[in-house]
Design a protein that fits this description.
The complex is a heterodimer of chains A (415) and B (602).
Chain A lengths: L1 H5 L8 H22 L12 H21 L2 H25 L1 E3 L2 E7 L2 E3 L1 H18 L4 H5 L1 H18 L3 H7 L2 H7 L4 H19 L2 H18 L4 H28 L2 H10 L11 H11 L27 H34 L3 H25 L17 H18 L2
Antiparallel strand pairs in A: 1-2, 2-3
Helix pairs in contact in A: 2-3, 2-15, 3-17, 4-5, 4-7, 5-7, 5-16, 5-17, 7-8, 8-16, 9-16, 10-11, 10-12, 11-12, 14-15, 15-16, 16-17
Chain B lengths: L2 H32 L2 H10 E6 L6 E2 L5 E13 L9 H8 L3 H14 L5 E7 L1 H10 L6 E11 L5 H4 L2 E3 L2 H6 L8 E3 L2 H5 L1 H5 L3 E7 L5 E4 L15 E3 L3 H10 L5 E7 L4 E8 L12 H10 L9 H4 L9 H10 L9 E3 L2 E4 L2 E4 L4 E3 L1 H7 L2 H12 L7 H14 L21 H7 L23 H13 L2 E2 L5 E4 L13 E2 L8 H13 L13 E7 L7 E8 L6 E7 L9 H14 L5 H9 L4
Parallel strand pairs in B: 2-10
Antiparallel strand pairs in B: 1-8, 2-3, 3-4, 3-5, 6-7, 8-9, 10-18, 11-12, 11-22, 13-16, 14-15, 17-19, 20-21, 21-22
Helix pairs in contact in B: 10-20, 13-15, 14-19
Chain lengths: 415, 602
């Protein structure tokens, strides 16, 4: 007990998470170094991304220590304030921000570009944790899920206005938290059904979709014709799906940007243009695929070194790992990230303070979404959506935000 | 919903995450381990195999003088993307091209590619390159790439050395060694020793980045192969003799062929008019070649020594004399009485001398009667059942002496000449002919025609008393100690060596006291035979055949000067001077030399 009071700061920090973090940071920096490596380079050291990333890492470690100094209660207390402040800056960016690769999501301070959305994710996680943690009256309970949805819909709307689709998708990751805290399964099934119908319709066409849906409905009607309630429900679901089918075209033509349409078409094999639209995905797959089982060796990648892969120190950094470290290295990195996420989830379950559990599920979801989209894109399973690989991709803001996000959790779970 | 149920959702969530991770790992396993096509695709996109051209082998003369070597030439290249503002006038002055031309070439290069280097100026000489190199830092985006060009050290022997040019499509299809734009020997030694001279191409495997620029070697160059320079050749040509021969042939048409009889090595082979071999090099090749080709007056590309077939003239009498001895229609002691001509009914082949004649004096005085009569007896010999059979026997002798056939040695494009078959005469005389029908061939006129090379080779047979080595122009390949063995086979003609004495004796007498007195050289025992090749198109061709020294022949010379008249007037002094120059390395008869050089025959 004595120890507990006098030396709270480093009593029980979760050593697993710390090791995963340190390993990911080291791998990340080495990979950034490799992606920029040129033999007999004469460029000054400080002009390189790996040099800048070194500074970001130092800044992040410093921030992590500062985060660790704060009292746990502060995060709960300031959660809404942080949330609103980050939202405010995100809105501000729409008007005064810089545009980088299509998204108006950056704010420039001197020579630094900062992406406030990265901090918005932390803010949202904190705010939702606080929201779920507050006692609810029965009336409030009725509207709880609508309110919760509002917490993520606002940042989604803002990021969509910034034309930053990737980040908007990340905010959907809080559904994992919602599910854990009691969101009805049928809502998830509904969402999943809509998503499947959407993809199916894009891949084939409306006629096929309606035919398949009708067949499924008829199947259900034949087997469950006695249960009138289920018949009504099935017909309702069917009607919604048909509505969704007709929405597909509208969303595809009017909501999605041309380059997004192209990326989806590419993924669904609707276009075959290896030098044009498919180029990035193809080169990404070639780089990873050519790594083989053990890889070409550190600094020996050809496809990445010769710049066939775009954005290889940021969004496509996994290509470098895949090419130089092969299947072994790829699996190791994936395993590390998944291990970190599961560790956060299992720690969350053990917490006596539910606030920490809510927060833990929130950030585990964010990390998972980043992993899911980023790796899925580089191995050609998902359309190209530009978001960074946590702790590994080059970039000051995202690295700092992920570090703070993780260390808040480490601090709060350290009791 | 109660807490216990919600806690179970933890496992669903973890399960879902693990499922996604597993799907990704299976996908990675498929991409990286199972599907090997990505490895090939990576190589195809980023690895490029560049061919490194080897330098061609050098060519030396028989005394190690360098005749042909490679000159460094430089191409000025530009990468349009790396270009910055520069002083165009300065560059134009350096390249000596107008500004519009430079801008046009840069625009063309930019249109082709912004990142692949394009040629701005080709084959800049060494001197200009030095000048340009100093200034190059002022022209960002420009760089110089070197290549090799053939250079001929002396403006002589163009026909023998030949030239190199871009490989044609038929060769490309036939020989996988060549790629579009490669150079190949087109004539002369460059052509016949192409495989030795061309060397082996090297390979440089480089990495190419996404903008098509080279980015260093692949696997640290372990798959690279350095090009191997072609082998050097030692020619049989004697450079000073060749130069001297070409000088003597100034303003004359015709050829000189000199052979070392003991080896078949060609010492000099002149075809006049000639051209400077350096005209057919580099960027001016096409233009100059067209110009040479269009010169229908001089026809400089035509190699008269190999490709022009002339009536052989009186020198052919030597061959007929030999055949007559071998066929035993005459002996050295046979004496025939020349009445100043060979009479066949209404027709007569005239002879400028008269009196009793044996073989030696017939050669000495070039007696037309004697050799017509000899041919009559050879073909009309009673041991053959008809004229056709007799004629074919005679023809076989000539073929064995190298007439009417090509040597297939290392001199490309030599022609056969004509020694007609009996079928030919059957056709034109409707099978009714007799030895007199072909009698003019006995004195080297009529239907037969031979090349100067064949005549010189025949002289080598005479000098060797019955055999020859195929005349050739390359002595050694690779190193001087590695003799060219392709032509080391002794080829015997059908006349036995014992029959050669009277012929050599007659040639000796011709120089001492006959038609060839002008060939005499102080201190050198030269023997020879004049000839006059009848020319239906104009003045007769002057012909001379010489062997020296008589007892140990070191050189045989055959000279033909078109429209030169009697053999004694032009061809004889040229052959004599060539012999003197080769054996003594100096010519004492300066006035004769001067007179021949300044002599101009149209």
């Amino acid at each position: 007990m004595y120890n507990n009071v006098r030396n709270r700061v480093s009593k029980n920090i979760d050593i697993h998470l710390l090791i995963y973090y340190v390993l990911l940071v080291i791998i990340g920096w080495l990979t950034i170094y490799s992606s920029e490596y040129v033999p007999n380079d004469t460029t000054p050291f400080m002009d390189h991304r790996y040099a800048k990333q070194l500074i970001y890492i130092l800044v992040a470690i410093f921030s992590a220590i500062v985060v660790y100094m704060f009292d746990t209660r502060n995060y709960s207390y300031f959660a809404y304030f942080i949330y609103l402040f980050t939202l405010f800056v995100m809105i501000l960016v729409i008007f005064v921000g810089d545009e980088i690769s299509g998204a108006k999501a950056w704010i420039r301070i001197g020579s630094l570009s900062i992406q406030p959305t990265e901090f918005g994710k932390v803010g949202t996680a904190l705010a939702l944790a606080k929201f779920f943690n507050e006692g609810k009256t029965n009336a409030e309970r009725k509207n709880m899920w609508l309110m919760a949805a509002l917490f993520i819909l606002i940042p989604i709307a803002i990021t969509l206005l910034q034309k930053d689709t990737g980040s908007a998708l990340v905010f959907f990751s809080f559904i994992i938290l919602f599910y854990r805290e009691g969101l009805a399964t049928w809502i998830l099934l509904f969402g999943a059904t809509f998503l499947s119908v959407f993809v199916f319709t894009l891949k084939f066409n409306e006629v096929y979709s309606i035919a398949v849906l009708t067949a499924i409905l008829l199947g259900f009607l034949i087997y469950q014709w006695k249960d009138k309630k289920k018949v009504v429900r099935n017909i309702l679901v069917y009607a919604c799906c048909i509505g969704c089918v007709f929405l597909v075209n509208f969303v595809y033509e009017s909501v999605l940007q041309p380059h997004q349409r192209m990326r989806i078409d590419t993924l669904l094999d609707k276009v075959d243009d290896p030098r044009g639209a498919d180029f990035n995905v193809n080169q990404s797959k070639i780089a990873i695929g050519s790594g083989g089982f053990f890889g070409k060796g550190y600094l020996n990648g050809t496809q990445t070194k010769l710049r066939y892969v775009p954005e290889q120190s940021t969004d496509f950094i996994f290509c470098n790992i895949g090419e130089e470290w092969g299947f072994v290295g790829s699996v190791f990195v994936c395993g590390l990230i998944i291990a970190m996420i599961i560790r956060i989830l299992s720690l969350s379950e053990k917490q006596r303070n539910p606030f920490v559990r809510y927060y833990g599920y929130g950030i585990a979801g964010i990390l998972f979404m980043h992993f899911f989209i980023n790796i899925g894109m580089t191995i050609g399973l998902l359309p190209i959506i530009g978001i960074p690989l946590p702790f590994i991709s080059y970039g000051g803001t995202s690295f700092l935000a992920f570090t703070i996000m993780l260390f808040i959790f480490l601090r709060m779970s350290d009791v | 919903m109660n807490n216990a149920l919600l806690q179970k959702r933890y496992y669903f969530i973890v399960g879902g995450i693990v499922l996604v991770a597993l799907i990704y790992m299976v996908r990675l396993f498929y991409l990286q381990v199972i599907d090997r096509s990505y490895r090939n695709m990576a190589e195809q996109t980023s690895v490029r195999r560049l061919v490194e051209q080897p330098a061609r082998g050098f060519i030396y003369d028989r005394n190690d003088s360098l005749l042909v070597y490679n000159d460094a030439a430089y191409d000025l290249m530009v990468v349009p993307r790396d270009m910055r503002e520069f002083d165009t006038n300065d560059l134009c002055r350096t390249l000596e091209i107008p500004k519009e031309e430079l801008l046009k070439r840069i625009a063309k290069a930019t249109a082709y590619s912004k990142v692949i280097p394009s040629i701005i100026d080709q084959q800049i000489s060494k001197e200009d390159y030095g000048y340009l190199q100093e200034k190059l830092y002022r022209f960002p985006g420009f760089f110089v790439q070197n290549r090799t060009l053939r250079h001929y050290a002396y403006p002589v022997a163009a026909h023998i050395l030949g030239y190199v040019g871009e490989v044609d499509e038929r060769t490309l299809e036939r020989d996988s060694y060549y790629r579009m734009g490669d150079y190949i020997g087109k004539s002369g030694i460059e052509r016949s020793y192409e495989e030795e001279l061309r060397g082996e191409k090297g390979i440089r495997v480089v990495l190419v980045d996404v903008s098509n620029r080279e980015r260093g070697s692949y696997k640290n160059g372990e798959e690279d192969e350095l090009p191997i320079q072609g082998q050097s050749l030692w020619s049989t040509i004697d450079l000073p003799l060749q130069q001297y021969g070409e000088k003597l042939m100034t303003n004359k048409r015709g050829s000189i062929v000199a052979i070392e009889p003991a080896t078949g090595e060609i010492l000099c082979i002149v075809s006049s008019p000639a051209y400077d071999p350096n005209l057919l090099v580099g960027k001016d090749l096409r233009k100059n070649f067209a110009q040479l080709l269009c010169d229908t007056v001089k026809v400089p590309l035509f190699n008269r020594a190999l490709q022009a077939a002339y009536p052989p003239g009186s020198t052919f009498k030597l061959a007929n004399g030999l055949i007559a001895l071998q066929e035993k229609v005459v002996t050295p002691n046979t004496v025939w009485y020349c009445s100043g001509g060979y009479h066949m009914g209404s027709h007569t082949v005239g002879c400028h001398h008269a009196g009793p004649t044996n073989l030696v004096s017939a050669v000495q005085h070039s007696c037309n009667f004697y050799f017509c009569n000899a041919l009559y007896h050879i073909i009309g010999n009673k041991k053959y059942k008809n004229v056709q059979e007799g004629y074919q026997v005679w023809r076989e002798y000539l073929l064995s002496m190298g007439f009417g056939v090509t040597f297939n040695s290392d001199l490309p494009f030599d022609v056969k000449g004509i020694i007609p078959t009996s079928d030919y005469f059957d056709r034109i005389y409707r099978k009714s002919w007799n030895p007199n029908s072909v009698i003019s061939m006995g004195i080297g006129q009529g239907e037969a025609s031979v090349t100067p090379l064949q005549m010189a080779n025949f002289l080598a047979i005479v000098a060797n008393r019955g055999y020859y080595y195929k005349p050739h122009v390359v002595k050694a390949i690779g190193s001087k100690d590695n003799p060219n063995k392709r032509y080391s086979e002794k080829i015997y003609c059908k006349v036995d060596s014992k029959y050669f004495d009277p012929i050599l004796e007659g040639m000796d007498m011709a120089v001492q006291a006959g038609t060839a007195r002008g060939a005499k050289i102080d201190g050198v025992h030269i023997i020879g035979k004049t000839g006059t090749a009848q020319n239906p198109h104009g003045r007769d061709h002057s012909v001379f055949a010489a062997i020296a020294p008589k007892n140990d022949p070191k050189i045989v010379v055959f000279v033909l000067v078109e429209n030169g008249g009697f053999g004694a007037t032009v061809a004889c002094p040229i052959a004599s001077l060539i012999t003197e120059f080769y054996l003594n390395r100096e010519v004492k008869r300066k006035d004769l030399e001067e007179r021949i050089i300044s002599m101009s025959i149209k």
